[in-house]
Design goal:
The protein has 9 helices and 14 strands. The protein is of the alpha/beta class and 272 residues long. The protein has a domain of 132 residues: Cytidine Deaminase, domain 2.
Amino acid sequence: MFEKPQTESHHDQEVISWDMTSRGSTTSRIITEEPLSIRVQGKPYAVVMRTPGEELNHVAGFCLGEGIVDNMSDITAIGFCDSADTNVVTITLTEARRTAVASYMDRRNYVSQTSCGICGKEIVDDLVQHIEPMVSKTIVDGRRAVDILENLKQYQPIHQQTRASHASMLCHPDYSILSVSEDVGRHNALDKAIGRLFRSERLIDARVLFLSSRTSYELVQKAGRAQIPIVLSVSRPTSLAVSLAKKLGMTLACLGRPQGLLIFCGSQRIRL
């Protein structure tokens, strides 16, 4: 297997421009979107649409979030199937881990499926069984949280170029940055940010997650699997995200208007 450098995250496209009075042509920078095929033990597991780059981090974070692995020691190899193809990544598990997740892999758990036709309570109850509740006593400053959320775009170079990417940023309790990733998909951005720290075995240092998007239950799930106790987002969470965060003992908040925070659960971790 091979490890390849990042490919282009955006490219220029000729477009027609119209300003209500006249028509012309110009060049617009657009974000790149391509499929990434994830294989486990040589067998297809999932295909996700994403922005090229950080593929191995992406897959490592994805597999942690899905419950395929718990630690990097569960993985014997991760890399590209072909040195010329960055759109297919395969991951090989240890024999012990293969045995541990055999039934899970056969089941193809609905954890990462948003249109599975089951009720919200069933999703939350199932996820809680696979994620350890938060016991962290981390406390962060609310004013600084607001400031970072309001200025999150300064950490998004792809968004500055394309106006079309989501970002996930992982930080220490003092808000020093550990990992930032962007992608056309918010789930992908979080998988990449988590995966980078997971592969370098520094995920334990991440206590705070900033999201440029709303918080869905899948993002709470991924943060829960990574044992990140505080999730702060620009937009409001979904009802299912709040339900899951409460059951996991997580802190969940977003920007309030005109300024401040809306804290949905875990307020004891935010100093106001």
